[in-house]
Amino acid sequence: MEAIRTKIEVAGAGLRPVVGERQAVFEARDVSVFYGDQLAIDNVNIDIYQHLITAIIGPSGCGKSTFIRTLNRMTDLVPGARLSGQVRYRGIDLYGPGVDAVEVRRRIGMVFQKPNPFPKSIYDNVAYGLRILGMRNGLDERVERALRSAALWDEVKDRLGDTALGLSGGQQQRLCIARAIAVEPEVILFDEPASALDPISTSAIEDLMHELKRDYTLVIVTHNMQQAARVADMTAFFGLEVAPDESRRGVLVEYDETEKIFTNPSDKRTEDYITGRFG
C-alpha cells in the first residue's frame, strides 16, 4: 500500500493544467462498463479538475452512478461488472497492476443517496474507518475535526455517545460526510446525496459542498438540474443511446463549465434535456 501511495504522490507533479490553473485529478479515457453482456456506459472521455465541483446529470438509466463508481473502483464490488479503457488518478491507472483498491477508496471517498450511518454511536461512526485503517493517533481530535468539517460538531458535541440512528436525516447525511472526511481523502464522490432530504437539509448539504471544495475535489451525481446549476463549477451531461437490438447504453454527450451547459449548450440533446423536452 505504501508503494501505491508513493506512486500517486510522485505522479501528481506531471499533470497538465486545463481549467485556468486547475489540474486534472481524473482522466477517463475510452471508459466503457459492462454488466455481464450489457453495455452500461460507452467510451467515456472526461477530465475532472482539482478543487472544483463537477456535476453529472442526465436521465434515469444513463449510467451516471455507474460512471462515478469507476472513479473509486466501486464497480469491483458488482458481480459480473467489468471495465475497459483507463481511469487515471493523478497519472496512475486505478485499474492497473499493483494498485490497492482499499487505498483507492480511502483517497476517493463516497457518500450515497440514502444516509447510511452504522448502528453505533456518533463518535464510533466517525472513528470506524480510522480504526480499520490504523489511524488511531489523536483519534478524538480527528473525530472532532471531521465533524467540524461536516458542519455537525456544534449540534452533536454533547452527545457523541448517543446512537447515530437518532439523528435527523440531514444530520445523518452530514455524519456520513464526516465519516468519509475522517480518513483524509482527496476526493469525495456524492451519489444523489440530497434526494432523500427535505429542502432545508438539502440547502445545508449544498452549502457544505461549497465549503468542502476548498480542501477536496467533489463529484456529484444529481437528478436535480437546479441543484447542479447552484453548486457545480463543471457539468457533464450523460444521455441514452438505443442500439438496433433495443439495448440502451449511457454516453457522455457534453461536458463544459456549468454556466455554458445551462445557458448555451453545444449539443441539441443537452438543450432538449435542460429545457425539459425529454428526460
Give the topology.
Layout: H1 2-11, E1 24-35, E2 38-49, E3 53-57, H2 64-70, E4 81-89, E5 92-93, H3 101-107, E6 108-111, H4 122-132, H5 139-149, H6 153-156, H7 169-182, E7 187-191, H8 199-212, E8 217-221, H9 225-231, E9 234-242, E10 248-257, H10 258-263, H11 268-274
Parallel strand pairs: 3-8, 3-9, 6-7, 7-8
Antiparallel strand pairs: 1-2, 1-4, 4-5, 9-10
Helix pairs in contact: 4-5, 4-7, 5-7, 7-8
Taking the alpha carbons of the first and last residues, their distance comes to 43 Å
Q: Main sheet? A: 6 strands, mixed
The low-confidence runs, each spanning 5 or more residues with pLDDT under 50, are 1-18
Please, what is the oligomeric state? single chain
What is the second-level CATH architecture?
3-Layer(aba) Sandwich
Tell me the CATH superfamily: P-loop containing nucleotide triphosphate hydrolases
Helix/strand order: HEEEHEEHEHHHHEHEHEEHH
C-alpha Rg, in Å? Answer: 19 Å
- Tell me the total number of β-strands: 10
Structural class: alpha/beta
CATH class: Alpha Beta
Number of domains: 1
Mean pLDDT, all residues: 90
Give the overall shape, derived from the CA principal axes.
globular
CATH topology: Rossmann fold
Individual helix count: 11
Classify the helix fraction into a percent range. Answer: 25-40%
SS strand fraction:
25-35%
3D structure, described in words:
It is built from eleven helices and ten strands. By secondary structure, the protein is an alpha/beta fold. It has a single domain, classed as Rossmann fold (3-Layer(aba) Sandwich), CATH 3.40.50.300. The strands form two sheets. A six-stranded mixed sheet has the order 6-7-8-3-9-10, sandwiched between helices. A four-stranded antiparallel sheet has the order 2-1-4-5. A hairpin with a 2-residue loop joins β1 and β2. The protein is globular. The N terminus is likely disordered.
